[in-house]
Amino acid sequence: MTANEILEPEGTPSTPKKAYLYPNKSGAQPVIARRYDADFRPDDAYKATLPDMTETVDAIEGAPVAIQQVGISGFRLPLRFESPQGELMLEGRVVGTVSLDAAEKGINMSRVMRTFYTFGEETFTPDTLVRIVQAYQQQVGTLCARLKVSFSYPALLGSLRSGLSGYQYYAASFEASVDADGTARRYIELDFVYSSACPCSAELAEHARDVRGAYAIPHSQRSKARVKVELQAGAQLPLIDLIEHLRRALMTETQVMVKREDEQAFAELNGAYVKFVEDAARLIYRELHGDARIVDFRAACSHMESLHSHDAVSVIVRGIPGGFRADFMDFPDLA
């Protein structure tokens, strides 16, 4: 006996299949009418009837425990930022999270975006983020909240000798958090790209030239430092000031506009400021340690070696109690 004979005994008419979205070959018509009413406008009474998952009870799936961070990532909008050249309109990429009590099913995530738009006409700084976080906390009654806005920041960089200039773009972010007791903390993070010429390779190249008359080129490589600073309460640190800190500390920022005289100057500059990855970390420490606006900092450096098939890396922190830890391990992100 076949499966069909079991399911459909002889003499028993088969039941036509239902159609849900499209008509089928048996002639059945869809049971669901698909239509969008572009003219429908919900009034307050209608909206009051809409289901709200935040009002549910006994709806938690899994363990009924608190969640430290829940929110949105990848929300984008144009934001205003200050610069030495005037106000800039840049694309901001937002991560916004809050804490969630054990008894709560979830949060209203759209409120993060709506709160952002109420500040859309302001020039964005870490202080702006603190006000947004505080406003969101008041709306949803959450304990802790944090926001991070990432953007690509353009700043003019002059050439070394030709008198030209061009825009260097820096991956940057502002971040703010507010704890349950109302304590606000503000952070700035910046990626800085520079050249690192190896001191050991430079010594060996000179030895080859001096002892054997052999022409040798010491190895150097594009390198990157990711620096995160926490600001003192009430202090203001324009992003261009942090960029200038790193320019002074490392001295060999990669160039934008380059003619032959600039390329020669860059070779001389690398010769004057040879550095291991250990040197880079300590140079940044010395520069940032003296800025009273910065309460804490962490610098992660990666030298993308041209000699080796791997990179040389270092991490340094200011070392204050309860401050940043040297636990950065995302070095592949610096490549």
From TrEMBL:
Its EC number is 3.5.4.16. One of its GO terms (molecular function) is GTP cyclohydrolase I activity. Keywords: Hydrolase. It comes from the Bacteria. The keyword Methyltransferase does not apply. InterPro entries: GTP_cyclohydrolase_FolE2/MptA. PANTHER family: GTP CYCLOHYDROLASE MPTA. This is GTP cyclohydrolase I. It comes from Deinococcus maricopensis (strain DSM 21211 / LMG 22137 / NRRL B-23946 / LB-34).
